[in-house]
Amino acid sequence: xxxxxVAEEPRPLVFWxxxxxxxxLSRLSRVRADLAADLSGFDTDLVEAVxxxxxxxxxxxxxxTDSGREEGGEVLRSLSLVDADTLLFSVxxxxxxxxxxxxxxxxxxxxxxxxxxxxxxxxxxxxxxxxGHLLLAPWADLGxxxxxxxxxxxxxxxxxxxPYVFTR
Length: 168
Hints:
GO molecular function: ATP binding
Pfam families: HATPase_c_2
InterPro entries: Anti-sigma-factor_SerPK, HATPase_C_sf, HATPase_dom
Strand content: 25-35%
Order of helices and strands: EHHEEHHEEE
Keywords: ATP-binding, Kinase, Nucleotide-binding, Serine/threonine-protein kinase, Transferase
Protein name: ATP-binding protein
Distance between the termini: 49 Å
Number of strands: 6
């Protein structure tokens, strides 16, 4: 008889309850306020970096997916402290965009100077340790999850955090 062992991935140190938002830019202030509340007590520079990236990623969900259409959609936010020095933030959209996020690379200096958009992912690339995306269902356009990891100073994590933080 063959035995199969499944390696368990370590659970995050802290896992905040997911938050679901209507896919509207008018909700951006709520997204930022909730993030500030959830990260209360963390280093302010970290909170500001995550908040800037969250704003960009939420706006992209609204702009490039069903979330931004008249019939609406939703954006799901997740947040976890996956180990002592890594905070993971992600948003998942409701699909309909047909593309994947990418930092534009092939522009001349003049084209960059004139460009109005697509600079947000550059912001994320510079503020986050790393970032990426995955299709929620590669066989259908059910949405995309975009995530970013941030460095956390373990000595500056607030005391008293529980493994699961429930929001409202």
